[in-house]
Amino acid sequence: MADTLARVQLARLARSLGRRSRSRLPPLVFFTDDGRVRDPLAAIRALPPGSMVVLRVKNSAKRRTLASAVSRIARERRLVWLVAADPDLAAKMGAHGVHFPEAKIADAAHWRVEHPQWIVTCAAHSLASCARAAFAGVDAVFLAPVFATQSHPGRSFLGPLRARLIAQLVHVPVYALGGIDSQSAKRLLGAHLSGLAAVGALAVEESEHK
């Protein structure tokens, strides 16, 4: 989890990248995570207005409950929010769109046509996957993992140099995800990225909302 100052610094770094971007999406994105963020709603309430949330929840009942709460907070805080891998719930809850894992990039093209007003994004772990996502017509790609991440301990990561190169070559807005915090993000300044996405770095310490 991050303290308030670290979250503010991360938001500032994301805005710096976003100013140079061609993306219409917010530069700062929070991904919920069942295993790493105990109170996703507190983290979402702490986001700067205009940020984006990607709701990732494995349990379908819990996902519906959280989606209802996120919908209310998003209206109050002027947040953009997407539902991961559940287009039906996104439509039912009035989300701004849907996010797909890399394995379902092909689905993105279908939902791009089905709901042309939606924001459609996907995850990608390589240059080839980013190219596939661009062909599918997504609004943005979340390139991951850029750095070592607690979400996938021991997994190999791209590193800042490879992430920079991929972002420069791909013709779709690219966001860095994986191990992103107020310190690691500094190594990405000046890259052709549209923003930063994080999990733990945007979580809220329990002491902050007691």
When the domains are counted, the total is 1
User: How many extended strands?
Assistant: 8
- List the secondary-structure elements in sequence, H or E: HEHEHEHEHEHEHEE
Looking across the biggest beta sheet, what order are the strands in? 1-2-3-4-5-6-7-8
For the termini, the CA-CA separation is 15 Å
Major β-sheet profile: 8 strands, parallel, barrel
Please identify which CATH superfamily we are dealing with: Aldolase class I
Mean model confidence by pLDDT: 94
- The helix/strand class is alpha/beta
| Tally of contiguous helical segments | 7
CATH arch. level architecture: Alpha-Beta Barrel
Give the uncertain stretches in residue-range form. none
Categorize the overall geometry: globular
What does it look like?
- The protein is α/β, with parallel strands linked by helices and 210 residues long.
- The chain has a single domain, classed as TIM Barrel.
- Helices cover 36% and strands 16% of the residues.
- It is built from 7 helices and 8 strands; from the N terminus they run H-E-H-E-H-E-H-E-H-E-H-E-H-E-E.
- It has helices at 4-18, 40-45, 60-77, 87-93, 105-114, 127-136, 160-169; strands at 28-31, 52-55, 80-84, 97-100, 119-124, 140-143, 174-176, 195-198.
- The chain has an 8-stranded parallel barrel with strand order 1-2-3-4-5-6-7-8, surrounded by 5 helices.
- Helix 7 links the parallel strand 6 (140-143) and strand 7.
- Helix 5 runs parallel beside helix 6 (127-136).
- The model has no long low-confidence stretch (mean pLDDT 94).
